[in-house]
Amino acid sequence: MITSIRIVFRDRAARKSALNAVLLSRTTAAALGVAIFIAVAVGPLSPARAASAYPNKAIRIVVGFAPGSGLDVTIRTITPKLSEVLGQQIIVDNRVGASGIVGTEIAAKAAPDGYTLLFATTDLAINPALFSTLPYDALKDFAPIGRAVNFLYFLVVNPDLPVKNVQELLALAKARPRSLSYASAGNGTPPHIGAEMFKQLTKLDLVHVPYKGSAQALTDVISGQVQLMFVNTASSMPYVRTGRLRVLGISTAQRATIAPDVPTISEAVPGYELVAWTGIVAPSATPRDIVGRLTRDLVRVLETPDVREKLMSQGSEVTPSTAEQFAQVIVADTERLGRVVKTAKMHID
Question: Is the pTM of this model over 0.70?
Answer without folding.
Answer: yes
